[in-house]
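Now for today's protein:

——
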Amino acid sequence: MKKINILFAILGMFALFSCSEEDKDPVVGNFVAPTLQNPTSGGKYILSKEIANNNFQTYIWTAADYGFPTSVTYTLQIDVEDNNFANAVEVDHTNSLYLPVKVSTVNEALIKRELKPGEEVRVEARIRATLHSNLDTLYSEVITYTLTPYLSEKAPLFLVGQHNGWDNSTAPEMNKQLDGDKYEIFINMPAVDQGFKLLPQRGKWDGDMGNDPANSGNLIADGEENMTVAAAGYYLIEVDLEAMTWSSTQTSWGVIGSATADHWDSDQDMTYDAETNTWSVTLDLAADGDNGREIKFRANDDWGINFGDSGADGSLERGGDNIKVPSDGNYTITLKLGYAGNYTYTLTKN
């Protein structure tokens, strides 16, 4: 009888959503979080390239119970122990009650968290269950085990230069989560006369790469000439180590979509804050009739470089899905194209 009462309460809530555009607080119910059944805490695993394609674990859990039958999105999160998932890596998501995860996938999650290859580390994992922005996010219990990551086949690459005072120990890492030997980084260049170079190892000058003076736009190892851009600004720097080439594109960013005043016709310009490395704008967002209430981010008022959110997890992907806005209202929107491919955004209702 209790579940039936909850069912009618939830159905009533959705009926209210369809009849009114008024703001509503998240609904808190007597919901049941998923329970992780496999793996269990206490395991100790040494990862290696030789078993990279093997199955690390098949994570299995019980269904989250919202009081009525529905399709729930489950996300596997991993972070270092005792960090309260403040910097959790979203490993993968599914609508099923199990998730096979390869050794290479777990290893990439650890390396993305900037953990050192070959060093043992205690990590925590949990399952996050999400259904609707107006319903509680549910989390499984946390399991803890020990992992030793290995150096990924695709090594990291770092950008050192005038932008960080030529300090090779703080050189920001480029995004290597691209096909082939390609890398990219979005970075602010406040001054450009001294330029920048590439480093295969943070903290060391060995193997640095610069511009080929005989063929600008090409890379040369141990080259004396720095790479440079034409003017100060916010840039996308792209590198292809197979072709040994590099390029730069100055960018400014905006929000576009059916939820904005100009819909899909033109961008709403964002403003860059160098201290926080974020772009932001405050806008009124509203549904555009049958076209819904969606947005995307794009550079230079063009679709050549655009980001969306495939998986609705707050993480951005190049050319990803449209981002759904939960309700009409005034929002502060932020975009952070962080280093090492950590591209994120926020929608905060004012």
Remarks:
- The chain has a mean pLDDT of 88.
- The two ends are 39 Å apart (CA to CA).
